[in-house]
Amino acid sequence: MDVVKKPMLLEVVRQRMRLRHYSIRTEKSYIHWIRRFVRFHNRRHPKELGKQEIEAFLTHLAVDRKVSASTQNQAFNALLFLYREVLELKMPQLDSVRRAKKPKQLPTVLSPDEVRQVLSHLDGKYWIAANLLYGSGLRLLECLRLRVQDIDFNLAQIMVRGGKGNKDRCTILPASVIDPLQEHLEKLRTIHSQDLEKGLGRVYLPVALDRKYPNASKELCWQFVFPASRYVADRDTGHQVRFHLHEKALQRAIKSAVTQSEISKRATAHTLRHSFATHLLQWGADIRTIQALLGHKDVNTTMIYTHVIQKGGMGVRSPLDLL
């Protein structure tokens, strides 16, 4: 009689997360923190551990490892998922575990002139992508995960699919990007046709979509707007597929452009999104409209930009300037 082996703990975690449609990044992050938690307590099974051990681990992260509040909270969320969704232990005592408080920080914002300087040091697909980060208010991965069918040139809008919180939304397509973007997609169309002739041409699709529409992965409309340069094997299907451009490639390009611009600010790809929101607010856009374009769940998140535009820190002049 064959003995059926129980799946390993981390494998069960993966199964439960995929059942609940968590993103692959969240899955990797939670697996990482659960593994570190178990190793911290000398590989004891989490069922043998409780509130005291969780607090000891979180304290170790804050005091010894000096991680940020958001990182510590991410670790706690991973352990919360482990105990409540995987081990199915209610453990109400976890509700009283002290969570790290995230400090209130204002985002870095570039002036319109500084944005122009940064964009002037980019070209090709990196120029188009950076223009969409600033001109459409996209997050880095929202931009890189765009597919051809998400761009509507007639309505001058972009459909963001599965954004933060797995939410869809519409945002604006800047008029100044339309012509370069259309030229870029024409090149993409040519490359895709050549790949199909070689027996390639598949793009990565989530497994459920790939099963439902078996031929969709070879259609142009499903191709990434910013595809990777080479094919790799899909871990689920085994097919040779193209993923989107790696985020680090775009981050490096923008970092290099900021350095060449000699801007004395620590600007990143996300800074362009902050600048989009701030400049819209300065030019009279309604806060609710900006909230919808950014995809914020709570308007209070969007309100942070009202603090950024207050000239002189609190909107007043220094008494020194009145002398």
- How many domain units? 2
Number of helices: 14
Strand content: under 5%
**Cα-atom radius of gyration:** 23 Å
Reported for the largest beta sheet, the result is: 3 strands, antiparallel
By DSSP, the count of extended strands is 5
CATH architecture of the largest domain: Orthogonal Bundle
Tell me about this structure:
It comes from Candidatus Thiodiazotropha endolucinida. Keywords: DNA integration, DNA recombination, DNA-binding. Belongs to the 'phage' integrase family. This is Tyrosine recombinase XerD. Residues 105-318 form the Tyr recombinase domain. This protein is mostly helical and 323 residues long. It has 2 domains: 9-96, DNA polymerase, domain 1; 112-307, Intergrase catalytic core (hpI Integrase, Chain A), CATH 1.10.443.10. 50% of the residues lie in helices and 4% in strands. It is built from 14 helices and 5 strands. It has helices at 9-19, 24-40, 51-64, 69-86, 112-120, 124-135, 140-144, 175-197, 207-212, 247-261, 269-282, 287-294, 299-302, 304-308; strands at residues 151-152, 157-160, 169-172, 232-233, 240-241. The strands form 2 sheets. A 3-stranded antiparallel β-sheet has the order 1-2-3. The longest helix has 23 residues, at 175-197. The chain is globular and about 60 Å long. The model has no long low-confidence stretch (mean pLDDT 89).
